[in-house]
Amino acid sequence: MEGQKNNNNNNSIERVVSQKAIQMGSSFPCQICVVGFLCGVCLTSLFLAALTSFGTFQLGPISFSSTMLFSVAASDSSSSSGNSTSHDHIVTHSECDFKLKQAEQLSESNSNNEGDEDERVSLLYSAWNAELTKSKTGGGGNYLMKDGVNVPDIPNAPHLENCKAKTKLYGRLDQRTGNESFPPWTSWKGFLDTHPVASSIEQIKELKYQAVSEGTYPPWIAGSDEENYPMTRKVQRDIWIHQHPVDCRDPNVKFLVADWERLPGFGIGAQIAGMCGLLAIAISEGRVLVANYYNRADHDGCKASSRSSWSCYFFPETSQECRQRAFELMKSEEARNNGIVTIKESYTSKHIWAGPTPRKWGAPWSYLQPTTDVNGSLLVSHRKMDRRWWRAQAVRYLMRFPTEYTCNLLNEARHAAFGTIAAKMVIESLAGGWPKQQSGEKERSEINEYVWSNHKPWIPRPLLSMHVRMGDKACEMKVVEFEGYMELADRIRRHFPNLNNIWLSTEMQEVIEKTKKYPHWNFHYTKVRRQARANMSMANYEASLGRETSTNYPLVNFLMAVDSDFFVGALGSTWSFLIDGMRNTGGKVMAGYLSVNKDRFW
């Protein structure tokens, strides 16, 4: 009895000790001690083995798992239980070698997986790049075959547009069909209006014609009336009708033919502002504006008839029939004397740059929504409200549809900035092991072709566009350092904490260098040589880049800014002024605009 009692006491003590050991073994400090103890045992045994065998050894990376720590704790508690069958756990040389090799294999496996994904991302990026080249030049197929990638197996590039298809659609939406009074502007959006059922069912055709004849608005305006400047959709419709008379040879149709400004001191913004003034004159006088020589399009990138023409970058301001008629009348002295056709030189600079805004639509600028922030306060009114409203309408019309050339420029810019991010996103979304698992066929469906094709190309959103104007602009406005722009960016971010990406446009290299001071932001910008010194004039800087580059990259930045979710700029800059106008006629009024200064004329 007494022996049994002693055994029971011993068993109770063992259970208590065992439970205590397990609790200690599961605690973090104990686990640290066990790791240290195990490392010491391994190193000691290896050292003794080396002394006894006079051999050499090499230590590799050692990895311990939570299960390994638990096993050691359980082993220790078991050895402390006092059972006659228990024995001490001895870490042998072979066990250490096994753990070392296992850790090395796991590390190599993880490294290989990461390396394999990086290779696939790089391959997909290169495949998209080859497709871009092919769309422009007709080449690129050999490159893809060389890497074992078939064109039908290339996943869709979400950040790229089908420029040929989009340009064809824009052409359809910018001209009348047959004897109809309007282009096919219907409630069926974009490519969906080209679906076979749209033209095969007579009732649908009649309803669509009724919608157009009753005043459907043009398709290049996004958003509701509240999301745009007042009357934007009606004004855009009326400008298109004014610029596209049904019969250009009607004796009552008059013209204003004008070259774009080309003095060396005029930047792109000033040229566009001047043409906005000429469009105002044309509408007020009942003339069709015909824009002629555009010096910035006088380069090898603009082919055939689009060379030296605005139509290299955007759809022309009027129809080809009206252009031909206007140039015919230019040769007639009688037409010029009778005022049937006028030219830019027929008007004073003051009339062009500061002339009256067309009053055809009343005074909609008098009730603009105050969504522009300057120095922490909303700008409610100023003495140039009419000019701000009109330039926004005019530039929206002149840039209503980009050409295939401009579409390709935007594709290249998005691919350079976001292509790797997009490739990683697509690779992670694929269930199979692209490019090894290939179907050999492109996925085709009507919803892809007619519905989803109308969506804008992917960019990382939300995206903030920032135009930092410095350099020789100091003679015209208050110049603010980059830090001032970033303060405004941080203000936006405090309200929208998911904002991480900035599309940066600037002519100054020092601004690009300063982005390194803001590692918590992702900066994207075009890769172009920038000014190294602030006292260099914009004209000299553009001349150093060449005409093609100095025209293409600003227009890309302009359109990227228009498409961004937020915008920070300087109202004293004509370029920022026009970007703001495009955004306010593109459904972005309620996104607001933070400016580092006021316009110099207000």
TrEMBL record:
This is Alpha-(1,6)-fucosyltransferase. Signal peptide: none annotated. GO terms for biological process: protein N-linked glycosylation. It comes from the Eukaryota. One of its GO terms (molecular function) is alpha-(1->6)-fucosyltransferase activity. The keyword Membrane applies. The chain crosses the membrane at residues 32-57. Keywords: Membrane, Transmembrane, Transmembrane helix.
